[in-house]
Amino acid sequence: MKNITDSFLCFIYWPSAGSFGFDTDILATNLINLSAVLGVLIFFGKGVCASCLFQRLSDLLDNRKQRILRTIQNSEELRETAIEQLEKARALLRKVEREADRFRVNGYSEIEREKLNLINSIYTTLKQFEIYKNETIQFEQQRAIHQVQQRVLQQALQGALATLNSCLNNELHLRTIGANIGIFGAMKEKTN
């Protein structure tokens, strides 16, 4: 009987020079290895019928195929769900961008409106301050003029009294009082 390990070690070769190495011809070694595996299965599985073995192998392959198909189907469903979610997200993004643009435009116009309102309010306030300033200046000028007039009048009266007191004697004083009383009496009679 031939040694069974000889068929399994076909991927290892011994060149004639006696060195050890690997066979790099993959197709040849795969075919040899597959035939070796099938040979071992047949040799050790003599009591098992070949149709049962192929049925079992067929069932395993079918199960594997079903799992692969389910995985592909699940992947497709997940892909479709992801595409739907992506479309929803894009639609939401477009909506948010439109809203942002609207808010930006409205915000800029609102800012401009507020700026104009503030400028108008400041202008009005400055006008009022100018009016108050002018009124205050005019009032202070009037008050200063009135005070100067009062002082000038007071000084004039004091000067006149001093002049009169120095020039008047009792007789002249009595005559002046009498004349003034006469003038007042005449005015009183005219008004009646």
State the distance separating the first and last CA atoms: 176 Å
Share of residues in helices:
over 70%
| Domain tally | 1
Main sheet overview: 2 strands, antiparallel
Looking at the structure, what is the overall shape? rod-shaped
SS element count, helices: 4
Give the low-pLDDT segments: 1-15
Describe this structure in words.
There is one protein chain. With 192 residues, the protein is mainly alpha-helical. The chain has one domain (30-181). Helices cover 85% and strands 2% of the residues. It contains 4 helices and 2 strands, in the order αββααα. A two-stranded antiparallel ribbon has the order 1-2. Strand 1 and strand 2 form a beta hairpin. The longest helix is centred in the middle third of the chain and has 118 residues, at 50-167. The protein is rod-shaped, with a radius of gyration of 64 Å. The model is unreliable at 1-15 (pLDDT under 50). GO terms for molecular function: proton transmembrane transporter activity. Keywords: ATP synthesis, CF(0), Chloroplast, Coiled coil, Hydrogen ion transport, Ion transport, Membrane, Plastid, Transmembrane, Transmembrane helix, Transport.
Defining key terms:
two-stranded antiparallel sheet; single chain; about 190 residues; 4 helices; mainly alpha; rod-shaped; disordered N terminus
What's the helix and strand layout?
Layout: H1 5-8, E1 12-13, E2 21-22, H2 26-44, H3 50-167, H4 170-191
Antiparallel strand pairs: 1-2
Protein name: ATP synthase CF0 subunit I
Membrane topology: Single-pass membrane protein
Coiled coil: 72-106
